[in-house]
Design a protein that fits this description.
Strand content: 15-25%
Helix content: 25-40%
Largest sheet: 8 strands, mixed
Shape: globular
Radius of gyration: 31 Å
Structural class: alpha/beta
Bound molecules: flavin-adenine dinucleotide
Number of helices: 28
């Protein structure tokens, strides 16, 4: 729209002193606001859109700096709601420039005749909920304001530039520009001495182009970022072919993917690949020039595991060193302070090579901080730079900045949103806030937003909201508000999800760390676009769970509760199992169940490498028993843990908990000997218990031969294996040894009693069911024997047992008997620690590298074992190995930097 028309429209609004009455007011006319307007109109709602900008575009209206482009391929970074729109527009490049994206949004606005309901040049200053009228009143900077039933903030995650935090900005006599508020007129940089402050996405895009124009460019860098070559050009033929072969299917896959772009899920782990294979994968992804590809397609552990991630990070640093000729500059440009992907990586065109130009200087603010900006330039604590132009590429007050800038937003009972969010944003689904009825946010904090292809996330939010509003209208409800319970539950779920990725380990705009004084915490939802969509759909399917709806005459509907109580990855595993529609294991017969378990185990991620794995046999009570020994890579001799696998005394073998044994071996630095005790129904009670005890005695006697530390051993076990471990401790106490230094019981069977609450609550679900437990017990032990402490250790004498670490899972039939055992041990004077794992199921901890949220629990188990064995603590609170600093730069580079 021409500026004159905008001015006329704005002055019309100013002269209009009547409050505009609409069903819905939308703030923001970017991708989100435009699609909202289109959908709301089609649904028959009267709507006004307000935007401070002079035209449509949002991000793409404001960010006009040289080099501004999207970094998700444009075939993905486009609306998908209308197939005709898709065929009516052709992108010219793999990553479109800002002018082209802005033209696209203008084209969309024209096609659906959107501008007639948009008030440009209009800033929303404050918003107040009028409880009596059940309407929002918006205060704007022009005109009398807006009264609306629903207020939707499509204000953008990256729309409030962060003010510079440097003294003297106003003293500078030269030109000042902000990448996020770049002028509409051409900015002439030729022949000028230019400074760019900031090396985030905008800086990295702008620097190569500014360097080509300026007489001299000085880049002031506080934190180096990972940047990857975009290899821009025409849209890649393979991706286009994929899209065109089945457009609807491609778009649907994107909607259910993790990041909003359809790439397959990676199932190969870094430790399954040789150095050469990893390098080959990396080079291929590097050549692809695609952020989502390099963030997800290298190996499965790159995004969630510090070790897997460090391998990628180092390969990128190698590229930086190979490109930047000056070793000091290369060192300064190499990020060591955050895992790759924990901060948004950038796509670049010639970024690193730009530092080889004679007219470019890099100033490392970590070594020489800026003291002030003066009339003539910038002074660091080492030198002064005379400048004509300063460009601030210092980023945004992300996610919450634009929402909090509308101040105050006053909800029910006079509550101010800034006060409610003083310690960080709290939302339900990133869509709504308890206490603020009829207020919605598009891509708000708590939704996948900036961790996704935002167009996919925007369309999902818009569709969800408009469908809900239409449904409310049909059912006669006039207000909708998130409940406190639902919101608190979402906050817990967000925290659980944040364990799936490494974002929590970096100081970034994702966590609010770039804005001084801002509350810290991972703001976007890290559980993925597809899982998030499923949750939003489930909220609807479960009667708008977590929302209170009201209507005239006191009508109310409130199905209160938490939408996700399981850990996010447990939920995924259980959904996957449910989709397999397996017959109940107990109907398969023992042989069939064993075959199923073998097949299931063959498909799981391979365990991680340990120093050594040795198979052998040891004498049991009646012949030889197989065992598998896992030795740490560290110098020994190590303490020995005798391990008993799970499987209800019926299933499994000495290898069946292989990934779990490897993990605990690595974490604890101890030898694990996994014993192949005999199974029911061929060998019924007390065979498993007696085999377990006999094996422990033999292992303790032969510790030195096994390469272990002579002296007391430890025992550990999961499920029925936990039962055998507990029984072994009782037998060892009563039968004169061996000496046991500690017991780790993971979701153990401790008692043949089936009326505890957890048996009923979890009877049908979560893989281990009540009827499966009945089957195990029936095959193992006749009812007459079930009070024997060798199968029900809870009924035995507990005094004088070794210290214990007892793990129970919330969604496990065995939960309460595990807790009962821990409490009884404590009452008998045995030192005992409990880990009650919230949101976990019976198999959580043994599903290593599948249930990532089990990491911190396994780290605590390993720590307990080390304590029992008298070894020093080595792990951080989240299971990170604190013995070494993965992100420390190699000494040679460090020296160069100094
Ligand atoms: C340089 C850059 C590149 C990006 N590239 C990508 C990419 O490749 N892929 C991707 O997924 N995302 C990218 N993003 C994120 C981008 O912000 C989103 O993709 C998308 O454009 C957001 O659209 P939106 O409508 O939600 O918000 P915005 O486009 O930010 O629009 C919000 C609008 O709200 C208006 N507004 C805010 N507050 C008020 C108020 N109080 N009163 C009136 N108006 C108000 C603003 O003026 C703005 O026009 C990029 C962001 C930037 C800055």
């Amino acid at each position: 729209m021409p500026d004159a028309a905008v001015a006329a429209r704005a002055s019309e609004a100013t002269s209009d002193n009547t409050v505009q009455q609409v069903d819905i007011a939308v703030v923001g006319a970017g991708f989100a606001g435009l699609y909202l307007l289109h959908r709301l109109r089609k649904a028959g709602f009267t709507t006004v859109v307000l935007d401070e900008a002079g035209d449509v575009g949002g991000t793409w209206y404001w960010n006009r700096y040289p080099g501004a482009r999207c970094d998700i391929q444009t075939i993905d970074y486009s609306y998908t709601f209308d197939p005709e729109l898709e065929s009516a527009w052709k992108w010219s490049e793999k990553y479109a420039t800002q002018p082209e994206i802005l033209r696209y949004l203008g084209f969309v606005a024209d096609r659906y005749d959107l501008r007639r309901d948009i008030r440009f040049g209009t800033r929303v200053k404050a918003a107040t909920w009028d409880q009596a009228a059940e309407r929002w009143r918006l205060t704007i900077d022009r005109g009398a304001g807006i009264s609306c039933r629903h207020y939707i903030m499509a204000t953008g995650c990256l729309s409030t530039p962060k003010p510079p935090e440097i003294d003297g900005v106003n003293d500078f006599k030269g030109e000042i520009y902000f990448t996020g508020r770049w002028p509409h007129e051409e900015v002439k940089l030729a022949g000028k001495r230019v400074a760019v402050i900031g090396t985030g996405s905008s800086g990295i895009q702008a620097i190569p182009l500014i360097a080509e124009q300026a007489a001299h460019l000085t880049v002031f860098q506080r934190t180096p970022n990972f940047a990857l070559p975009a290899h821009n050009g025409p849209a890649p033929a393979d991706r286009v072919a994929l899209l065109e072969s089945d457009r609807a299917g491609y778009r649907e896959q994107a909607r259910w993917s993790l990041a909003g772009v359809p790439w397959p899920q990676n199932t190969v782990f870094s430790w399954q690949l040789s150095d050469a294979e990893r390098r080959e994968r990396f080079e291929k992804a590097w050549a692809t020039g695609d952020l989502v590809c390099i963030l997800t397609q290298l190996w499965a552990d790159q995004g969630g595991d510090p070790d897997g991630n460090a391998l990628v990070a180092e390969l990128i640093r190698e590229k930086i060193r190979a490109t930047v000729k000056d070793p000091e500059a290369a060192a300064a440009l190499s990020p060591y302070d955050h895992p790759f992907g924990a901060k948004r990586p950038c796509l670049d065109t010639n970024y690193y090579a730009t530092y080889n130009r004679a007219n470019v200087t890099l100033v490392n603010l970590r070594q020489e901080p800026i003291k002030s900006i003066t009339a003539t330039g910038i002074t660091t604590d080492r030198r002064s730079f005379d400048l004509d132009v300063i460009v601030f590429a210092t980023g945004f007050d992300a996610m919450t900045g634009a929402i909090m800038a509308v101040h105050p937003i006053t909800g029910r009972g006079g509550k101010s949103l800034s006060a409610v969010w003083a310690n960080g944003p709290q939302t339900y689904l990133g869509l709504a806030v308890s206490g603020f009825p009829n207020l919605f946010m598009i891509t708000g904090p708590g939704s996948p937003s900036v961790l996704s292809n935002m167009i996919v996330s925007i369309e999902q939010h818009v569709d969800w909201i408009v469908d809900r509003l239409a449904a409310m209208r049909e059912t006669g409800f006039t207000t909708i508000e998130a409940t406190e319970t639902a919101q608190a539950g979402w906050e817990r779920h967000m925290a659980d999800c944040s364990m799936l990725t490494l974002h929590r380990l970096a100081n970034t705009w994702y966590t609010g760390a770039n804005v001084p004084g801002k509350a810290r915490g991972v703001m976007p939802y890290t559980g993925g676009v597809g899982p998030y969509r499923a949750i939003c759909n489930e909220v609807v399917g479960r009667g708008m769970l977590g929302f209170r709806l009201t209507g005239p005459d006191g009508r109310q509907q409130c199905n209160d509760g938490e939408i996700v109580r399981l850990q996010p990855d447990v939920r995924l595993v259980l959904n996957m199992l449910a989709e397999m529609k397996l017959p109940p294991i107990e109907t398969m017969g023992a042989a069939g169940a064993r075959a199923f378990v073998a097949q299931f185990n063959a498909a799981r991620p391979a365990g991680r490498p340990v120093g050594d794995v040795v198979d052998g046999t040891l004498p049991g009570t009646d012949g030889l028993l197989p065992y598998r020994l896992y030795r740490p890579a560290t110098p020994g001799p190590h303490p020995i843990v005798v391990y008993f696998h799970g499987g209800g005394w019926v299933l499994g073998d000495e290898q069946s908990d292989d990934p779990f044994c490897r993990d605990l071996c690595r974490r604890s630095g101890m030898i694990f000997v996994s014993v192949g005790y005999r199974h029911a129904p061929e060998h019924r009670f007390p065979t498993a218990a007696e085999d377990g005890y006999a094996a422990t005695r033999w292992i303790a006697q032969h510790a030195a031969e096994l390469g272990g530390r002579p002296g007391p051993v430890l025992v550990a076990g999961w499920s029925a294996g936990g039962n055998i471990a507990a029984v072994t401790c009782q037998l060892a106490r009563d039968r004169g040894g061996p000496e046991i230094a500690g017991q780790l019981l993971v979701c153990p069977v401790t008692d043949a009693t089936f009326d505890r609450s957890s048996y009923n609550e979890n009877a049908e679900g979560y893989f281990l069911t009540r009827s499966l437990m009945y089957w195990f017990w029936d095959l193992y032990c006749s009812p007459a024997d079930r009070t024997d402490p060798r199968c029900s250790p809870l009924r035995g004498k507990l005094q004088g047992l070794p210290p214990a670490f007892v793990v129970t899972a919330e969604f496990d039939p065995l939960r309460d008997e595990g807790i009962a055992y821990a409490e009884a041990l404590g009452a008998a004077g045995v030192p005992v620690e409990q880990l009650m794992a919230r949101g976990h199921f019976h198999s959580s901890f043994t599903m290593v590298d599948v249930v990532i949220t089990g990491v911190s629990g396994r780290a605590r188990m390993a720590e307990a074992l080390r304590r029992f064995a008298g070894l020093p603590q080595t792990m951080g609170p989240c299971g990170e190995d604190v013995r070494r600093d993965r992100n420390a730069p190699p000494p040679a580079v460090n020296a160069a930097a100094e």
